[in-house]
Structures are given as structure tokens and as C-alpha cells.
């Protein structure tokens, strides 16, 4: 349970830090609809963040 909570807190921190990045992402989605490319990038970043969070525990 603590590990799950820690992962959620890491995700929350990332969301707070990356608000500008998310805004840019949404603008790009509206303009160019690069859904596939952005999903791959975001998935890669999410895996990296999860790995970091688990290593810190």
C-alpha cells in the first residue's frame, strides 16, 4: 500500500510540475493531432518516472 501511495504522489508532483508541458501538448493535439507520437513520448516518460519513484523508496 505505501508503494502505491508513493507512486500516486510522484504522479501528482509530475502533473503539478508539467502543467505548462501539458498545455503545450493540448495545443499541439488541437493543431496537428499528433496523437500517436505524443502517446509514445508520454508513455516513455511515465515509465521513466515510475522507475525513479520505485528506486527512491
Automatic annotation (TrEMBL):
Organism listed in the record: Salmonella typhi
Protein name, UniProt field: Uncharacterized protein
